Amino acid sequence: MFRYALLGAASFLGGSMRMTVSLCVIMVEITNNLKLLPLIMLVLLMSKAVGDVFNEGLYEEQARLRGIPLLESRPKYEMRNMTAKEACGSGRVISLPRVVKVSDVVSILQSNKHNGFPVIDHTRSGESLVIGLVLRSHLLVILQSKVDFQHSPLPSDPRGGDRSIRHDSHEFAKPVSSKGRSIDDIHLSSDDLEMYIDLAPFLNPSPYIVPEDMSLAKVYNLFRQLGLRHLFVVPRPSRVLGLITRKDLLIEDTENVNTLELQSTSVRNRHHNKRLMTRNSDVERPLLNGLLVGSE
Length: 296
Prior knowledge:
The structure is a single chain. This protein is α/β, with parallel strands linked by helices. Helices cover 42% and strands 12% of the residues. The protein has helices at 2-17, 21-31, 37-54, 58-65, 84-88, 102-111, 136-145, 190-193, 216-226, 265-284, 286-295, and strands at 96-97, 99-101, 116-122, 128-135, 149-150, 196-198, 209-211, 232-234, 251-253, 260-262. The protein has a 3-stranded mixed beta sheet. A hairpin with a 5-residue loop joins strand 3 and strand 4. Helix 2 (21-31) runs antiparallel to helix 3 (37-54). The N and C termini lie far apart (95 Å). The model is unreliable at 259-268 and 279-296 (pLDDT under 50). Pfam families: CBS, Voltage_CLC. It comes from Stylosanthes scabra.
C-alpha cells in the first residue's frame, strides 16, 4: 500500500507541477529506497506527458492569471513568418519630448501603466529623432524631488552634453517592495505643473533597437536571452557605420599596464600608423640612427 500511495503522490505532483528530475530526487530521498527509482521515473514521465496534452502546468497557469509575461523557452512556430512591426500592433506609441511640461508628464503617467517611454528630439530640419528611453520610475523620482524643474522650455544644455544630476544613485534604485512609487502619491501645485523638465540627463541613450522587418522569432530570443523589458522598432537604417566581430571585443594590454583598450579597428589602425611614422623617420635619419646604434 505504501508503494501505491507513493506512486500516486508522485504522479499527482508530476502532472500538476510538471517537475520530473527534482521531484524524482525528493521522492527517492524520502523513501531511501533505490528500488523504487525506475517506477517513480516512469510515473513522473507519464503524468507529465499526459498533462502537457491538455493544459499548462500549475506554475504557468498561476503566472498567466496574475498577468505575468512569462516567456517559454522557444518561440511559437508561426513567429518565424511574422515581423517585429506586426507585433507592435496599430496602437500609437506614447513618447515624450526632450523638454517636457510637468503637467504632460503627470497626464501620461496617469493615463497608462507603461514602464518606459521613448524620448524624441527634433533636428534642425524638423526630423524626429529617438535619443533614448526614460523609465517610469525615474520620472516619478523627478516629479517627487522637484529639483530638476525649470521655467524655460529650452534644453538646459543645447549641445547635448552631460549635465550634473542632483540625485543620489539609491533614489533611482529599484524599490524593495513590488509596489514602489505611484503617481497618486505625488502632490504638485499649480505652479509646479506649469514648469518643464529636461529629460536628457535621465534617459538611457542606447536602448536596444531592432529593424522593423526583423523576424519575430529573433525578437523573442532577444527578450528571452537578454531579459529585456523594452525594445524599440525602427525603420531599417540605410547606412552602415561599421562592423564588429568577436576579435574587436577582445581586451588587450597596451604599453601602459593600467590602461586597457578595446582591440577595435581604429586602435589597430592607430598602431599601424604609428609604426609607419617611425619607419619613415628612420629612413629620413640614417646617420643619426647609425650613431645611436654604434654608441649602444
